[in-house]
Design a protein that fits this description.
By secondary structure, this protein is mostly helical. The protein contains 15 helices and no strands. It has helices at about 1-5, 15-25, 30-35, 40-70, 75-90, 95-105, 120-140, 150-170, 170-180, 185-195, 205-220, 225-235, 240-250, 250-275, 280-305. The radius of gyration is 24 Å and the shape is globular. The relative contact order is 0.10.
């Protein structure tokens, strides 16, 4: 198995001693570590914890939180709310690990940038991201409201090729960039939560939508030319022919998806900004707040009169 994973002529990758000790302490099945190797063990462990954490969040939300904050929502709304609440977990964790892991790569060295070995931090970032996507794939298959072929394809390709590329030391730079871009999902899922809780006319909904569009452009679109430059100019000398074909068959896909999603996002924001007018939206919100304050003042005055 080890030879099949790393291929002929590839030595089993090693991990620093401290990380190896941590793996042995956290994984109670030493034979798994012996069979897969330290790098695969760390990645698989992070994958498993991420999947389990997502399931725990699902249970906590549906059992304790949703009955309080979303008791009057429809069944469809609850599905979207559940999906978005759990999805905030990887968006708030994996990208920040991936950013730190990127700083540990020899990005400026074009001879080794695409063949660099992963650090424990990179392994955990990739494992965490893939573990969540495995959970979300199951959730989407179980709920037709959020089931979409494009999303399922994205998840399945990531679950298959992110670990492959990471453990083979192939294009880890690109994989970590893709994990970093998941930070923009914060704005996406906050928007859905606000929408399904009935706050689509609020100032917060407007501000979040604009911030989401800006962050999507800055994080996913703006760095793309630089990543393409790296993909085209860096050395592939360490790649086998199969590695090279797999890399160039899969690396462009997320960039295409990001461009398509940004088009949809920008179109939606422009539509929202045009109808209804922003001034009318904010005026309506201020008017509602003023009416609420007047109502509370009136009730307070009535209470005082009753006392008198």
């Amino acid at each position: 198995f080890r030879g099949a994973l790393w291929g002929p002529g590839f030595a089993q990758p090693s991990v620093p001693g401290g990380a190896r000790a941590g793996v042995g302490m956290l994984l109670p099945l030493p034979y798994i570590q012996e069979t897969l190797g330290d790098e695969a063990t760390i990645l698989f462990q992070s994958f498993s914890w991420s999947f389990a954490a997502s399931c725990v969040l699902l249970v906590l939300w549906r059992g304790l939180i949703a009955p309080v904050v979303a008791a009057n929502r429809s069944a469809d709304d609850l599905v979207f709310l559940t999906n978005s609440v759990v999805s905030l977990f990887p968006a708030l964790t994996a990208p920040f690990l991936a950013v730190q892991a990127l700083w540990e790569l020899p990005i400026s060295d074009h001879a080794t940038a695409l063949a660099a070995a992963p650090t424990p931090l990179a392994l955990r970032a990739v494992g965490l991201s893939c573990g969540y996507m495995a959970y979300d794939t199951v959730f989407c298959l179980a709920h037709k409201q959020v089931r979409h072929p494009l999303l399922l394809g994205h998840h399945l390709l990531s679950i298959l090729f992110f670990p492959y590329a990471t453990l083979r030391h192939r294009a880890l730079l690109v994989v970590l960039f893709f994990v970093c871009t998941e930070v923009t999902n914060i704005g996406q899922h906050v928007r859905i939560i606000l929408l399904k809780l009935g706050h689509e006319r609020s100032r917060l909904y407007l501000v979040n939508g604009v911030a989401w569009a800006v962050s999507f452009f800055v994080v996913r679109i703006l760095p793309s030319p630089y990543l393409f430059y790296k993909m085209a100019d860096c050395s592939y000398a360490a790649f086998s022919r199969a590695d090279f074909v797999v890399a160039w068959a899969t690396m462009p896909i997320p960039f295409v998806l990001n461009s398509f999603w940004f088009y949809l996002l920008a179109s939606g924001v422009l539509r929202f900004l045009r109808t209804p007018p922003i001034d009318a939206l904010l005026s309506s919100e201020n008017q509602q707040q003023q009416q609420q304050q007047d109502k509370e003042a009136s009730e307070e005055e009535q209470r005082h009169r009753a006392i008198d």
